[in-house]
């Protein structure tokens, strides 16, 4: 029987013929932590008596969630992580470099790799054809030391994409639509594997946005094949040698197949307080918004800033709506400056934060007040997510976010076309 993408990658990484349901021990290529999960990993690593990460993998530490540190406790966590990185020779991504998942995509992930991270949105790298998943801090500590981990090979859902997005509709709308369709537990411990003729016109940044949110449907991974689009992205990053073609076998077995015609989609918004509580933007337009956030590992890439700048050019944010921009990485920030997007956003009244997670998880840089509504390009809108259980978070594309920043209320971006 043919293999899914998950089965193929985990077969190679485990040296066995892996089938869905099997438990495998697989070699890890990259194990990483960030600054909220990393301190426990470091303590567990040391408590277990480990001295060095395994030579067979790359270990990486990212200071991105509270960057720069907003208080002494988090500053001390950063110090612990820096000391660990310097002692062990692990890669250290400093404050201001950006969100772990964006940097992994830009410089570390490659097709066919096994990547684990102490962060649930590690799934993002599935956009490049890597089997990438989040794990607990202790699991990552052990994998870092041993160079391998155990996994149950997931069953796969095949998502077949056809057609092209209409104007004003983006990858974020697709993944919100899909999560609304199957529910927040619709793919629990399964792989969402994307395919179909639409992929030939779907960029890697779009794929990263979609893979990033696979976990919001409970998926273990969100996986794209590695194709010519992947090759050209890696070439653009100066990483030609990391490319390898990768696709599922035609005879692979799936638990479910979902067909989506991109041309039939429209702008979607997730309403508080669950990601699968979706509605077309046009149905809830008029909802007042006090803060718009364009950033994060889901919606803070160069393409997102370009879309936002195109809508905001020559316009101003609504006087009662704050506009917060957090580029996903230093590379994104530099490219956005070079392209003039940052200047456009500043002229529109935006506040530009340093590259990093920004206000996404409510640690700093934009926590919400009681009763306030935020429209964000992030991936989660759980109660209290942005620092206040009395506030409300809506999720949407950068286009919907930018259009809503202008009007001060949820707006269908097609109204600006
Ligand atoms: Fe997590 Fe948000 Fe940071 Fe992404 S941007 S890693 S979702 S806190």
How helix-rich are the residues, as a percent range? 25-40%
Backbone shape? globular
Named once each, the bound ligands are:
iron/sulfur cluster
Range of strand content: 15-25%
Head-to-tail CA distance between termini: 48 Å
Mean pLDDT: 98
CATH C-level class of the largest domain is Alpha Beta
What do we call the CATH topology of the largest domain? Aconitase, domain 3
C-alpha Rg (nearest Å)? 20 Å
The CATH homology group name of the largest domain:
Aconitase, domain 3
Protein model, in words:
- This protein is an alpha/beta fold and about 425 residues long.
- It has 2 domains: about 260 residues, Aconitase, domain 3 (2-Layer Sandwich), CATH 3.30.499; about 150 residues, 2-Layer Sandwich (Aconitase, domain 3).
- About 30% of the residues lie in helices and about 20% in strands.
- The strands form 5 sheets. A 5-stranded parallel β-sheet has the order 4-3-2-5-6. It has a 5-stranded parallel β-sheet with strand order 16-15-14-17-18.
- Helix 2 packs across helix 5.
- The longest helix is centred in the first third of the chain and has 17 residues.
- The chain is globular and about 55 Å long.
- The structure holds iron/sulfur cluster (SF4).
- The site of iron/sulfur cluster has 12 residues, from helix 9.
Secondary-structure blueprint of this entry?
Elements: H1 5-14, E1 23-27, E2 30-34, H2 38-47, E3 58-62, H3 72-88, E4 91-93, H4 100-108, E5 114-117, E6 131-134, H5 137-146, E7 148-152, E8 155-162, H6 171-182, E9 190-195, H7 204-212, E10 221-223, H8 228-236, E11 256-261, E12 268-270, E13 278-280, E14 291-295, H9 296-299, H10 302-312, E15 322-326, H11 330-339, H12 341-347, E16 351-352, E17 373-376, E18 392-395, H13 398-407
Parallel strand pairs: 2-3, 2-5, 3-4, 5-6, 8-9, 8-11, 9-10, 14-15, 14-17, 15-16, 17-18
Antiparallel strand pairs: 1-7, 12-13
């Amino acid at each position: 029987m043919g293999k899914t993408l998950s089965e193929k990658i985990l077969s190679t990484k485990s040296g066995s013929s892996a089938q869905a349901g099997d438990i495998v021990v697989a070699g890890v290529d990259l194990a990483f932590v960030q600054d909220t999960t990393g301190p426990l990993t470091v303590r567990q690593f040391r408590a277990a008596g480990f001295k060095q990460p395994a030579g067979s993998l790359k270990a990486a530490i990212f200071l991105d969630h509270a960057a720069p540190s907003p208080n002494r406790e988090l500053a001390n966590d950063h110090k612990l992580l820096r000391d660990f990185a310097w002692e062990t020779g692990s890669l250290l991504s400093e404050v201001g470099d950006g969100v772990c998942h964006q940097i992994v995509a830009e410089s570390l992930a490659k097709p066919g790799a096994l990547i684990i991270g102490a962060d649930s949105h590690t799934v993002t790298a599935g956009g490049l054809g890597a089997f990438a998943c989040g794990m607990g801090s202790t699991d990552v500590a052990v994998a870092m030391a041993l160079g391998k981990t155990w996994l149950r090979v997931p069953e796969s859902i095949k998502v077949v994409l056809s057609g092209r997005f209409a104007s004003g509709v983006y990858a974020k709308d697709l993944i919100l639509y899909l999560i609304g369709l199957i529910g927040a537990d619709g793919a629990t411990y399964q792989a969402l594997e994307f395919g179909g003729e639409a992929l030939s016109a779907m960029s890697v940044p779009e794929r990263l946005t979609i893979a990033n949110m696979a976990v919001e449907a409970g998926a273990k991974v969100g996986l794209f094949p590695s194709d010519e689009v992947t090759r050209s992205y890696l070439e653009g990053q100066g990483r030609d040698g990391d490319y390898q073609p990768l696709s599922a076998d035609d005879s692979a077995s799936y638990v479910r197949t979902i067909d989506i015609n991109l041309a039939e989609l429209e702008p979607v918004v997730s309403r508080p307080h669950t990601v699968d509580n979706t509605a077309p933007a046009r149905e809830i337009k008029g909802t007042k918004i006090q803060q718009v956030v364009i950033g994060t590992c889901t919606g803070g890439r160069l393409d997102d800033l370009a879309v936002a700048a195109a809508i905001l050019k020559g316009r101003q944010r609504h006087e009662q709506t704050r506009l917060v921009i957090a580029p996903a990485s230093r590379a994104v920030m530099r490219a956005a400056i070079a392209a003039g997007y940052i200047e456009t956003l500043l002229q529109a009244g935006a506040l530009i934060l340093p590259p990093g997670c920004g206000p996404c998880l409510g640690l700093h840089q934009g926590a919400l007040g009681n009763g306030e509504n935020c429209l964000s390009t992030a991936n989660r809108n759980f109660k209290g997510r942005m620092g206040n259980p009395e506030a409300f978070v809506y999720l949407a594309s950068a286009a919907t976010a930018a259009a809503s920043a202008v009007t001060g209320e949820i707006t269908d971006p097609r109204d600006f076309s």
